[in-house]
Amino acid sequence: MLRDRLTEEMKGAMKARDDIRLSVIRLIRSSVKNREIESRHELADGEIIEVISTLVKQRRESIRMFGEAGRTDLVEKEEKELAVLLTFLPQQLTREEVESLVAKVVADCGAQGPKDMGKVMKAIMPHVAGRADGSIVSAVVKEKLA
């Protein structure tokens, strides 16, 4: 289970005195705990992956914004945190893999053009959840339907 892995990784980070890894794991655990309090049930691995995906998305946005502001010190910190977060997600899909999945889903749905984008996104997201960034999937779907 992912919850057990987080606990073990946290212990390892404490022993190794890896401050960045430790702080990121604590952030994940607290975010998971907050989501459990909101939903009033213990999260399954899939739901924990959703929480981690949200944190990854936040880090990527922060990196973009800090980069635009010229804050390289903060960009480096966020990139280190992002690298740790990505170790807890399933293997990420390449753009080519996303393109082939989108092509398959478009064919299965019978999508004709941009008006069917919502239908395609709804069908493909369960297949790529936690394994691909939603903005990349959305861009590929737009390209295929254009």
Protein architecture, described:
By secondary structure, the protein is mainly α. It folds into 2 domains: 2-86, Hypothetical Protein Yqey, Chain: A, domain1 (Orthogonal Bundle), CATH 1.10.1510; 95-145, Arc Repressor Mutant, subunit A. It is 78% helix and 0% strand. The chain is built from 7 helices and no strands. The chain has helices at 2-16, 19-39, 45-68, 72-86, 95-109, 117-128, 134-145. α3 (45-68) packs antiparallel against α4 and α5 crosses α6. The longest helix has 24 residues, at 45-68. The radius of gyration is 18 Å and the shape is globular. The mean pLDDT is 92. It comes from Geobacter benzoatilyticus. InterPro entries: Asn/Gln_tRNA_amidoTrase-B-like (IPR003789), GatB_Yqey_C_2 (IPR023168), YqeY/Aim41 (IPR019004), YqeY/Aim41_N (IPR042184). This is GatB/YqeY domain-containing protein. It holds the Pfam family YqeY.
List the helices and strands and how they pair.
Elements: H1 2-16, H2 19-39, H3 45-68, H4 72-86, H5 95-109, H6 117-128, H7 134-145
Helix pairs in contact: 1-2, 2-3, 2-4, 3-4, 5-6, 5-7, 6-7
